[in-house]
Specification:
This protein is mainly alpha-helical and 79 residues long. The chain is 63% helix and 0% strand. It contains five helices and no strands.
Length: 79
Amino acid sequence: MDFIRFRELAGWTCEQAAEKIRESGEERFARVNASMVSKHERGVTFPSPDLIERYMQITDGAVTFNDWWAVRQSARARA
């Protein structure tokens, strides 16, 4: 499932998703913000492996690496 769909079904804004990522308390996620989440969702930028793992955690495994890869491929096809 792509993250946009998951987020919308969960009723989260991009800011709320960013907050959930930052809730880990890990310094490496401290700078995640709504803009970054939106860029990941649209395939403008590709999340790091650590961040993909964090997305998997906050979605209880509903959004995986393969989902992010599909977003990236789709974005490249549109470009």
